[in-house]
Design goal:
By secondary structure, this protein is α/β, with parallel strands linked by helices. The protein has one domain. 34% of the residues lie in helices and 12% in strands. It has four helices and four strands; from the N terminus they run βββαααβα. It has a four-stranded parallel β-sheet with strand order 1-4-2-3, with helices on one face. The longest helix has 13 residues. The chain is globular, with a radius of gyration of 14 Å. The relative contact order is 0.26. The mean pLDDT is 95.
Length: 129
């Protein structure tokens, strides 16, 4: 049992379980009824996405110079009580269920899901490789 950290919209791995979208906005041009079928997500958790303000700032210039500041600010946002509770629940669920969390970004190294991976690991989550 474990959490997989995935890119939304990619084919699902065998035994992956439900996908949770940790994105601010749903996929463009896709009907809500098709989100799961097309590999996006089964449930949406925008509370674990970067704020629209932070995301907009970073996406204008996703350079390596901006990434450290983005990551620090996102960590700050994830200190909110609602985010903390969700992270704790996901870490606990990973002990007995397979599921995944993800985002649309192609490069995990410059995506908030890399920070989510770290936050979940700090809470003792089981994370698939």
């Amino acid at each position: 049992m474990a959490i997989r950290i995935v890119r939304l919209g990619t084919p699902r791995a065998r035994g992956e379980g439900p996908r949770l979208g940790t994105v601010r906005r749903p996929p463009r041009g896709v009907r809500k009824s098709d989100y799961a079928r097309l590999g996006y997500y089964d449930a949406w958790l925008p509370e674990l996405a970067p704020s629209l303000r932070l995301f907009s700032w970073f996406i204008k210039d996703p350079s390596s110079q901006r990434w450290p500041r983005f990551a620090r600010q996102y960590l700050r946002e994830m200190r909110s009580p609602p985010a903390q509770r969700l992270l704790d629940v996901l870490a606990k669920l990973s002990q007995s269920a397979n599921f995944s969390v993800g985002c649309y970004c192609a490069d995990e190294s410059r995506c908030h899901r890399s920070v989510l991976r770290q936050l979940l690991a700090e809470r003792g989550a089981r994370i698939a490789r």
